[in-house]
Design brief:
single chain; alpha/beta; Aldehyde Dehydrogenase, Chain A, domain 1; Aldehyde Dehydrogenase, Chain A, domain 2; 2 domains; seven-stranded mixed beta sheet; five-stranded parallel beta sheet; 16 helices; 20% strand; binds nicotinamide-adenine-dinucleotide; L-glutamate gamma-semialdehyde dehydrogenase activity; EC 1.2.1.88; proline metabolism; Ald_DH_C
């Protein structure tokens, strides 16, 4: 327990193995069968009521697009307005509930997810978002459980931060929530991020309108149900699937908008920010804008790097979850002396990768999320195949006959400023630039100056001086910087996550820094015996 016994001390949830014959494998297999056999209705949840508009969009399995898993009921205008109303009216009671009471809801949710709900959320994440069992487990189970538990711990630690009091008076900092409601707009690629963008402001006493990504709605809706099962009061989080532009236009026009908690592409965050700017005179206060956005994450190898560990990091960093992690390695810089060995190891390993149906546990990769992503990535591969400045080292094929499958692909580019080195592709494509060993200092500047993003990055070297040089030269090139490790896989409480430049506001999900954005503290000074005479001693005659 913590020092004051108000909450259990948070410990990272253990990742289960899903080895054949394990209990977790059995439970997950049974749940996959249940979810594959039904079409889940996904209505809006507004003030605790389900609202099914009848205007529906299908949720399909990326690895088998003919397989229908759910039906989203897109919220109509009246539902969106009702959700805003529900969030506004729930605010008073929820903001006055004690932190201990609010925490109990989320701690219970963590225990439910660690236990009976684990297989449900994992199965929905596998089927709906195309993750393997392991990728689902580290996201929908472990990371989300960690967010639930660590946020509680961080919130209590923040509340303990108080100003000094002097003799005769008492000072107190009251960690109030924002006045109004928070709009959570969430991405497809992590169930845990979807959940956290809604629960982090709610834990701090805010009420929330949560607009999930259509392609993550299945798992996100089940998480909403889990929160209800944990006792979240009606109206605290309102789940509103639907047309993102229609929902956002309605929400951003409201004077009660107190904040936006966003994760997704840079372009969409830019749109939201611009709209808030245009509406600024309408709002009761200045909305807090928190956005984690795109990336073009790098791996930089020094001539002293170990080729074997570098090749494994490139493979895992670039191809796990089909390269659809915001932190995925997508540009690599390898010295000419090392490249032949790294290329050989990498190609040999990539050729053993099994890709296919994620319910087949022997697969390492599944399909990319949807038709739009498939077309975008396949288009890049087609152009690369015809580009004389690009060599296809391995992969390069795309096949959408059954699911949206893209080969794990390694491309070697001649020009370090090639669009493949600058643009976020968000798929299983790694672009490599091979540099002359003596150009290490120039390459440091190149990595720093290429692409507008600054999310994650890694350096591989055994030479300590080279690590120090890279760490210094790339100080602003990544919000999460890795030394001799792949740039993916941040763990809550261990590597607070987020980047700057065009990668977002760097408000570090999974740390107290994020929670601070959802409070607007009130300073209270109480004087015990106030003066009864206005005159100061120096005024005596
Ligand atoms: P996206 O921007 O397409 O969608 C994100 C959310 O915005 C979804 O809920 C979507 O419905 C909504 N949206 C889309 N268009 C909108 C509009 N015009 N107005 C308002 N809302 C709109 O992103 P995605 O495809 O779900 O996720 C991939 C992106 O997210 C990548 O760029 C990736 O790098 C980024 N990402 C970043 C982080 C991070 O921590 N930095 C984490 C995960 C994902």
């Amino acid at each position: 327990m913590s020092a004051n016994n108000l909450y259990p001390k948070a410990i990272n949830e253990t990742v289960l193995s899903y080895a054949p014959d394990s209990a977790e494998r059995q439970a997950l297999t049974a749940e996959l069968a249940v979810q594959q056999a039904r079409v889940q209705e996904i209505p809006a949840v507004v003030g605790g009521e389900r609202i099914a508009s009848g205007n529906t969009t299908d949720v399909c399995a990326p690895h088998a697009h003919a397989q229908r898993l759910g039906r989203i009921h897109n919220a109509d205008q009246a539902t969106i307005d009702a959700a805003i109303g529900a969030a506004v009216s729930a605010q008073r009671d929820w903001s006055q509930a004690s932190l201990a009471d609010r925490s109990a809801v989320f701690l219970k949710a963590a225990d439910l997810l660690a236990g009976p709900w684990r297989a449900k959320l994992n199965a929905a994440t596998m089927l709906g978002q195309g993750k393997t069992a392991y990728q689902a487990e580290i996201d929908a189970a472990c990371e989300l459980i960690d967010f639930l538990r660590f946020n509680v711990q961080f919130a209590h630690e923040l509340a303990a931060g108080q100003p000094i009091s002097s003799p005769g008076l008492r000072n107190h900092l009251e960690y109030r929530p924002l006045e109004g409601f928070v709009y959570a707009v969430t991405p497809f690629n992590f169930t845990a991020i979807g959940g956290n963008l809604a629960i982090a402001p709610a834990l701090m006493g805010n009420t929330v309108l949560w607009k999930p990504a259509a392609t993550a709605s299945l798992s996100n809706y089940l998480f909403m149900e889990l929160l209800e099962a944990a006792g979240l009061p009606k109206g605290v989080i309102n789940f509103v699937p639907g047309d993102p532009v229609a929902v956002s236009n309605a929400v951003l026009a409201r004077p009660e908008l107190a904040g936006i908690h966003f994760t997704g592409s840079t372009a969409v965050f830019d749109t939201l920010w611009g709209e808030v700017g245009r509406n600024v005179l309408r709002y009761r206060g200045y909305p807090r804008l928190v956005g984690e956005t795109g990336g073009k994450d790098f791996v930089l190898a020094h001539p002293s790097a170990d080729a074997d560990t570098l090749a494994v990091a490139l493979l895992r960093g670039a191809f796990e979850y089909q390269g659809q992690k915001c932190s995925a390695a997508s540009r690599a810089y390898v010295p000419a002396s090392l490249w032949p060995k790294v290329r050989e190891r990498l190609v040999a390993m990539v050729e053993t990768i099994r890709m296919g149906d994620v319910t087949d546990f022997t697969n390492f990769m599944g399909a990319v999320i949807d038709r739009r992503a498939f077309d975008r990535i396949a288009g890049h591969l087609q152009r690369a195949a015809q580009d004389s400045a690009v060599k296809v080292v391995t992969g390069g094929r795309a096949d959408d006959s059954v699911g949206y499958f893209i080969d794990p692909t390694v491309l070697e580019v001649d020009n370090p400023r090639h669009t493949l080195m600058e643009t976020e592709l968000f798929g299983p494509v790694l672009s490599v630039y091979v540099y002359a060993d003596r150009q290490w200092p120039e390459v440091l500047a190149l990595v720093d100056g290429t692409s507008p993003y600054a999310l994650t990055g890694a350096v591989f070297a055994t030479d300590r001086a080279a690590i120090a040089q890279a760490s210094d030269a790339l100080r602003f090139a990544a919000g999460n910087f890795y030394i001799n490790d792949k740039p993916t896989g941040a763990v809550v409480g261990q590597q607070p996550f987020g980047g700057a430049r065009r990668s977002g506001t760097n408000d570090k999900a999974g740390s107290p820094l994020n929670l601070l954005r959802w409070v607007s503290p009130r300073t209270v000074k109480e004087t015990f015996v106030p003066p009864a005479d206005y005159r100061y001693p120096h005024m005596a005659a």
